[in-house]
Write a structure and sequence with these properties.
By secondary structure, this protein is an alpha/beta fold. It has a single domain, classed as Spore Coat Polysaccharide Biosynthesis Protein SpsA, Chain A (Alpha-Beta Complex). The protein is built from 10 helices and 8 strands. Helix 1 links the parallel strand 1 and strand 2. Helix 1 runs parallel beside helix 2. The N and C termini lie far apart (48 Å). 42% of the residues are buried.
Length: 234
């Protein structure tokens, strides 16, 4: 196995995700075989998540529950040049690593801070989801704010420099995007990751969309992430 020109550390935060974890780890083995790193960031699962991760990942980090804490703990042991934060129900496009590498090397040649995200496609085939994902991608491009569903990637040195994800109960992806975009515009890769539409399917499309808008608006007006997390869980 030859060392890759640019090493990527893929960090997957999980909490009781054994059903999705086995699938996503299987899809990432080709990257491990190429010299990239896969880290599972477990938040104290009570199912078989840690057992599955110990077989299918290079490293497993167990921390307190909370995506920000889980991802920060895992980033601390990452050895890659770039950190790629991937939800366990999100599938990367086949050329994801090549696309990130190309963009990163280009930014290095011009001394530009490097971070970004992919466009997203929801897994459901219903037409309403095409509208939702299009609006998600347009909003992200317009605001330069990425969400966890879009597979955020950040140069490791930049991630360390800003202190990682703000360790808040919710909206850590929005919070770190706001910090990063003050330093550099994100690279918005138009190739799509495919992320599960289970949240919308379980709770209803309209109800879920309205909830997401409500949470973002409340966050914009300064409502605490702890309170937002309680609203989200409810």
């Amino acid at each position: 196995m030859h060392a890759p020109r640019l090493k990527i550390s893929i960090v997957i935060p999980v909490l009781n995700e054994e059903n999705h974890l086995s699938i996503i780890l299987g899809s990432l083995q080709k990257y491990r075989d190429s010299g990239h790193q896969v880290i599972v960031a477990d938040g104290g699962s009570s199912d078989n998540s840690v057992k599955l991760a110990s077989v299918g990942a290079d490293d497993v980090v167990v921390s307190l529950a909370g995506r920000a804490m889980q991802m920060n703990s895992s980033a601390a042991i990452a050895t890659g040049d770039v950190l790629l934060f991937l939800h366990c129900d999100t599938v990367l496009p086949h050329d994801a690593i090549e696309l990130i590498t190309k963009q990163c090397l280009s930014s290095k040649s011009t001394n530009i801070d490097f971070w970004g995200r992919f466009d997203v496609r929801l897994s459901s085939r219903r037409k309403i989801y095409r509208v939702i994902e299009k609006l998600m991608n347009l909003r992200s491009r317009y605001t330069a704010v990425a969400t966890g569903d879009q597979a955020i990637f950040i140069e490791r040195d930049l991630f360390k420099r800003i202190g990682g994800f703000p360790e808040i109960a919710l909206m850590e992806d929005v919070a770190i995007s706001k910090i990063l975009k003050q330093l550099a515009e994100p690279f918005c890769i138009n190739k799509k990751v495919i992320t599960s539409s289970r949240r919308w399917e379980t709770h209803g499309v309209i109800k879920t969309v309205l909830l997401m808008w409500k949470l973002r608006l409340l966050y914009l007006f300064g409502v605490s992430p702890d309170k937002l997390a309680r609203l989200y869980r409810r």
